[in-house]
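Q: Could you fold this chain for me?
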Amino acid sequence: MTDLLVHDYRVQLTIIVLARIVTRIFGRGSAPTKVALNAAFFAALTFVLFLQGLAPYEALPPGEDGIGRAAAGFAKAVWWISGSMLLVSLIRLFLIFERTPREGRLLQDILVGMVFVGTALSIISYVLQIPVGTLIATSGVFAIVLGLALQNTLADVFSGVALNLGKPYRIGDWIVLDDGIQGRVVETNWRATHLLSGTNDLVIVPNSALAKARLVNQSSPDETHGISLVLRVRPTHSPLVIEDVMRTVLSSSNHILKHPEPSVRITALDSIAVEVELVCRVKDISRTMAAKNELFDLVFRHLRASGLRLAAPAAAAGFHAQDSEERDRGTPWRLVSSLPLFGSLTEEEKEILAGSLGKRIFERGSVIVSEGETLRGLAIIRSGVVVVEREVAGSTVELTRLSPHDCFGERGCPDRHPRDGDQTGTDPGRDLRSPAGYFAADHGDPKGSSRSSWTALLQAYGA
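A: Sure. Below is the predicted structure, expressed as structure tokens.
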């Protein structure tokens, strides 16, 4: 028994294979442990085979009986498989990309596939003794036929590999293709990339089409997204005045980023209009629509407050819009009519209220009302920007910004509630203030107003 164990390589080979199977089943350790076990198994097989004069990379010598040739062929096949397992474990251990684990795993899989293909060809050539050249030629014809049948699928697969390695986008990025398709990347696989459009529809783009297309990644290099608005203003004032008004528009916005600083550029000037471009950024692309809507509203309000008007489009150069009759009634009436707070009042009541408004002018940086102070009148912003701030833990936090046609004090006047924050003017501005008698509930009905209208106002604002 001892002589059989020492001199018969088939018994030695069986013991080594059984030992490796046992360690494979019960020894699920770390990656370095797997490398060590595979190296020991490969070294033991190599020692046994070369000790018997069996070179795994050479053909079997003639003269062996059927059992001997089968045993030798099995030993060589096990040796090649063992070598491939060692290479695979080394690839898994050392070929690691910590910052891009997904791409690293893809490269590992490609190399592992190449190792197994090489192992299969080696077994066919040195164990089965089938000419590999003939096999490759035969399989080449089959591969051509198969490749033509799967041309589009293979193009998608290899394009997916290229896109994963090139990383022009990641999951969560918003991309725009040259054909107008755009959306947020929600999934990418071997065949296609899935985009979620702005209308919440799933768009599936084949990788081959995506690899050829010109795309814009609006989430790179960071999440901020730039927007621009082009406006045409009547040249009733100098371009410098119009530029200053537009800068006030940008400074009064609550949706755009203050850093980097927004910019205003005069792009054209003629006898009909001054063309202005507003450029700014938002925190991410999902806020683009809200920011543009706010900017359009602020442009309208600041232009009206400054006595400016929008010009007709360039295509309608001969068209001149007529001013509305609101301008003839004066600024106070226009401000009162623009507030939802007074929506339930009649035209006569609005006229009476507008006639009682008083005007106050504040310099830039001055505090209009401090936190905790009780207001005795409603303040309506005619022009400029007002910042609402609050002291939190020793630091000043900006709550919001107010623009022309906004108001404050609508809560403090009826019920004498103190203000929840400081109002500070960031641009030289004016406000129109109504007497407290119009809003003090303990002073009776408003002058000229019906009790039902006043009650509706109080209920609408929770007074």
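A (continued): Residues 42 and 82 are 6 Å apart (CA to CA).
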